[in-house]
Amino acid sequence: MSISRKIGDVTEEVYEKVLLNQIRKSGAVPSHIGIITDGNRRYARERGISPNEGHVKGKEKLEEVLEWCMEIGTSAVTIYGFSTENFMRNPEEVEFLLHLIDDSLNSLMKDERVSKNRIRVKVIGELKLLPDFLRNTIDRVQKGTEAYGDFKLNLAIGYGGREEIINAVKKIADEVKMGRISIDDINEDLFHSYLYDSSVPDPDLIFRTSGEERISNFLLWQGAYSELYFSDINWPDLRKIDFLRAVYTYQGRKRRFGT
After folding, report:
1. Tell me, what's the pLDDT at 27?
2. 124 with 155: CB under 8 angstroms?
3. Helices 51-72 and 91-110, axial angle in degrees (round to 10)
4. CA distance 107 to 234
5. Alpha carbons 51 and 221: distance in angstroms, whole number
6. What are the Cα distances from residue 55, in Å, to 49, 159, 180, 188?
7. Rounded to an integer, what distance in angstroms lies between the CA atom of residue 130 and that of residue 123?
8. Which of 3-7, 114-118, 120-124, 133-137 has the lowest mean pLDDT?
9. Per-residue pLDDT tens for 154-204?
10. 127, containing H or E segment
11. What is the Cα–Cα distance from 168 to 198, expressed in whole angstroms?
12. Closest alpha carbon to 77 in 235, 203, 246
């Protein structure tokens, strides 16, 4: 390793510590972060490797980022892992991704950090669209962690924000039809209770990698007043310093919630 590279690494490490201290002093840490993990395929193209290898790198990066979230004191994270639109990709890539998710969930159940940090895992999305083997794994993971809750990890798999809203509307309409609630009972709080997971607060920050500046059907209802942060870094390349910058930028904003 060259001297200049060593100096650069040391400088980055020092800057990380400074940012982390500033974030902790502020106290205004986002309690819930939504993350759009974009850029695995671009990362793969830039390095001349297969898209599947890029997805594996993305899975490894997720484990790091969850550690960073817990380190700053965030208590809930929602990861956009596989959208309803992703089903339209190459069938071989879709199959690989679904098996990668399955392997990741099985590994998660063997990870001592889950019980140590009391991580509750919940998968949100149209689970009926997923293959049986993955639904069975999801069921085991959710039941195995349902007693936890110090840190809530939501994985959006087979997820679409519009679909979530439509499903909530259908459920509420059915309740009205059955006479269990009246139209006058419908308000924001009631509607929120019919979403995929009403136990987590709306995300304070939605963070997306790879340079795209849109939310792509992610947490459309919940993200109405979320602060948005977009990074040019592809997801597998994300560094801790990039993540801390996003949080630090969030802390410097004045949230108005439409006022």
Report:
1. 74
2. yes
3. 40
4. 24
5. 31
6. 11, 18, 45, 37
7. 11
8. 3-7
9. 999 999 999 999 999 999 999 999 999 999 999 999 999 999 999 999 999
10. none
11. 11
12. 203
The answer to whether residue 52 scores a pLDDT higher than 90 is yes
Categorize the per-residue pLDDT at 9 as very low, low, confident or very high, splitting at 50, 70 and 90.
low
Order of strands across the sheet that contains 32-36: 119-124, 151-159, 76-83, 32-36, 205-208, 227-230
34 within 8 A of 226, measured Cβ to Cβ: yes
Structural domains in the chain, sorted by start: 29-251 (3.40.1180.10)
Kindly report the number of other CB atoms within 10 A of residue 160's CB atom: 21
Cα 27–chain centre separation:
22
3-state SS, residue 49: coil
Q: Return d(Cα 213, Cα 229) in angstroms, integer.
A: 9
Eight-state DSSP code of residue 250: H
Amino acid at 114: V
- Catalytic residue annotation: 38, 86
Say how many C-beta atoms besides its own lie within 10 A of residue 15's C-beta: 13
d(CA 78, CA 142): 15
125: left (phi over 0), alpha (psi -120 to 50) or beta: left
pLDDT digits over 18-28, tens only? 999 999 888 78
What residues form DSSP beta bridges with 208? 36, 230
Instruction: Give how far Cα 158 sits from Cα of 12, 98, 179, 210, Å.
Output: 37, 10, 31, 21
Task: Provide the mean pLDDT of the chain.
Answer: 94
- Percentage of residues of the chain with pLDDT beyond 70: 95
Token readout for 68 is: 């960073």
**Phi-psi sector, 187: left (phi>0), alpha (psi -120 to 50), beta:** beta
